[in-house]
Each structure stands twice: as C-alpha cells, then as structure tokens.
C-alpha cells in the first residue's frame, strides 16, 4: 500500500514535470508565433519576449506548488520550511518582475488603470 508521503512526493514530481513542460512548450510556441509575426511585419522581438515571459510565469506557479506540497507534506522540517520560504520569496520576486516587464505597470495598479480606461468614475457614474 502506498503511503501519504509517497503520494505527495509523486504529486510534487508530476507538478515539477508539468512546470517544465509548460516552460518548454511555451518557449516553443513563442518561437513559432515569432516566426508568424515576422511575416506579418509586427514587432516579433517584443512579442517573443512577452510570450516567453508568460510561459515562465505559468511554469513558476506549478513549480512553487510542487515545492509547497513536497515541503509541507513530505518533509515538514523547520529547515525545509525555511528553504521553501526562500524559494517562494525568490520566485515571487521573479514573477513580479516578469509581470511588470510584460505589462509595463505594477500588478496592484492594474485595477486602477482598468477602471479609469472605461471612462467611468470610481463611484459608478457614467
């Protein structure tokens, strides 16, 4: 019979694999899309950077989930939790930096920009 720790470890490995596949698949899709944009005359460099950034952001979410599952469910030691904390802080910084690079604004300022772009005030007036 399989123990809970073994199942959690397998789930962590599967999430790691999904994260890697998302990153590699996203990069391949970005290259294909870049070649298509090149024929259209669009800014291919900007588009490939954005596509690769999105693939990395999504892959980081899977990798963080795998680390959390593995650390909390498989080896819940103080050292493991500290290492997990450092990994999450580093990946959060990377995710935020990539998101700012892609969108040109801080993630928390997005809702203010979206609300002001519709032409409505914050009180719901038209």
Shape, per Cα inertia axes: elongated
Number of strands: 0
C-alpha end-to-end distance: 63 Å
Strand content: under 5%
Give a short account of the largest sheet: none
Work out the helicity level.
over 70%
Low-confidence stretches: 118-126
Provide a descriptive summary of the structure in words.
The model is unreliable at 118-126 (pLDDT under 50). The chain has 126 residues and is mainly α. The termini are far apart. It is elongated. The chain has four helices and no strands. The protein has one domain (4-113).
List the helices and strands and how they pair.
Elements: H1 4-40, H2 44-74, H3 78-103, H4 110-117
Summarize the structure in short.
This protein is mainly α and 126 residues long. The protein has helices spanning 4-40, 44-74, 78-103, 110-117. It is elongated, with a radius of gyration of 20 Å.
């Amino acid at each position: 019979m399989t123990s809970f720790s073994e199942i959690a470890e397998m789930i962590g490995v599967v999430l790691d694999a999904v994260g890697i596949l998302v990153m590699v698949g996203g990069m391949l899709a970005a290259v294909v899309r870049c070649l298509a944009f090149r024929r259209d005359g669009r800014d291919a460099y900007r588009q490939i950077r954005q596509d690769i950034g999105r693939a990395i952001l999504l892959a980081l979410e899977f990798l963080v989930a795998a680390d959390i599952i593995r650390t909390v469910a498989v080896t819940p030691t103080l050292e493991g939790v500290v290492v997990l904390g450092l990994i999450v802080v580093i990946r959060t910084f990377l995710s935020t930096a990539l998101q700012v690079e892609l969108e040109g604004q801080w993630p928390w300022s997005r809702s203010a920009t979206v609300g002001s772009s519709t032409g409505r005030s914050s009180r719901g007036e038209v």
